[in-house]
Amino acid sequence: MQSTRNLRPPVDIHETDKSWHIIADIPGVAEDAVELTVEKNTLYMQAPINDSSSWKRSFTIGHSVDTSAITAKMNDGVLQLELPKHPSSQPRKIAIAS
User: Fold this and answer.
1) What is the pLDDT of residues 77-90, one digit of tens each?
2) Distance, CA of 36 to CA of 56 (rounded, Å)
3) How much is the pLDDT for 3?
4) How far apart are CA 24 and CA 47, in angstroms?
5) Interatomic CA distance for residues 27 and 24, integer angstroms
6) What is the DSSP track for 39-85?
7) What band does 1 get if pLDDT is binned at 50, 70 and 90?
């Protein structure tokens, strides 16, 4: 019986005024093998690497993220996710009345 190893490849995370971005290098993993799910305030990312290894990461996401608008794309082994912020949590300019 073989045990499965869980690999945690590095990811880059950065924030803009309107969204969070997560970029993960997962070369050799097919796009259709990647599973992305959101449950409550946690984003789960996983994919099988081979018979004895899998790739898994999870991230706690704040309530400012609009989970229904999260998008993902994959190109040449690079997985990119955009986690948009709710408009109410984005900075806005306030005009000063005269």
Assistant:
1) 999 999 999 887 76
2) 10
3) 55
4) 12
5) 9
6) ETTEEEEEEEEETTEEEEEEEE--TTB-GGG-EEEEETTEEEEEEEB
7) very low
Dihedral sign (CA 61, 70, 78, 48): positive
pLDDT digits (tens, 9 = 90+) for 22-37: 999 988 888 999 999 9
Phi, psi of 72 (to 5 degrees): -140, 145
Q: Let me know: does 81 contact 62? Beta carbons within 8 Å.
A: no
24: helix, strand or coil: strand
Kindly state the tokens that stand for 3. Answer: 């045990």
Which two tokens mark 44? 């789960």
d(CA 10, CA 66): 24
Structure tokens at 35: 């599973």
Distances (CA, A) of 39 to 28, 55, 59, 66, 97: 27, 18, 11, 13, 43
